[in-house]
Amino acid sequence: MLKKISVIAAVSFALAGCATTPVVTSQTVIVAGVGPVEIERVDVEVAAVDPAKRLVVVRQGRQTWPVAVPPVFGDLQNLRPGDRVEVRRVEGVILDVKRARKGAKPAIIYTEASAGSSFQNLPERFVARSLTVTARFESFDPATNVVSYVGPAGPRTHVVADPDIQNELGRLKRGDMVELSFAEAFLLQKT
Asked: Phi and psi dihedrals of 176, rounded to 5?
């Protein structure tokens, strides 16, 4: 079951990074060790699956976009065109920030997935993982500790708690391409 959820998770997280205007609903919960966080919910339909190329095309309304699914998420044989998938995602903390290589484009790279969650108050079926978002840096406000950036999912903001990361963000200029490493949790289920 976890492998099936993980496959759908890869599809859905790439959705968050590849769609230009996905319809997202959210609710706020308190997570031990993180504080108040938003649980985002996105509903999509699987439009096509190519297991050999590890590619899934998802659809929301008229928009479709391809999603490359990393091998860590297992076999894609369980996904079929027409399957409806509900994705719930909790963005946790920024773990690291660094300048991206020259010529980098907005992207999302998944670095690990595990069944054990560092988000203690979330339901047991949430899976925790790390990912790196390559994005264009917009600004950092030291008064509120909010970083603004434009990544694959468009403009985003995030509160930064770590003083070392805050210092690093203070050195960046608007327009710099950066790599932001996050911890997050997700839950996926067919609907």
From this structure: -60, 140
The neighbouring-strand residues paired with 129 are: 113, 184
Q: What backbone phi and psi angles, to 5 degrees, belong to 134?
A: -90, 125
| Tokens matching residue 64 | 């479709």
C-beta separation of 109 from 14 below 8 A: no
Q: What is the pLDDT of residue 3?
A: 45
pTM, entire model: 0.61
Distances (CA, A) of 37 to 16, 91, 160, 177: 17, 7, 13, 26
> Which residues, including other chains, have CB under 8 Å from residue 93's CB and lie 6 or more apart?
34, 161, 162, 182, 183
> For 89, how many CA atoms within 13 A lie in the half-sphere containing its CB?
28
Q: Which residues of 100-132 are buried (b: 16+ CB within 10 A; e: fewer)?
A: beeeeebbbebeebeeebbbeebeeebbbbbbb
CA distance 90 to 142: 24
83: alpha, beta or left, given left = phi > 0 and alpha = psi -120 to 50?
beta
> pLDDT per residue over 115-130, tens digit each?
444 566 666 667 677 7
Token pair 């500790």: residue: 145
In the numeric block, which tokens belong to residue 125? 């079926």
Cβ neighbours of residue 119 closer than 8 Å, sequence gap 6 or more: 31, 32, 33, 34, 90, 92, 126, 128, 185
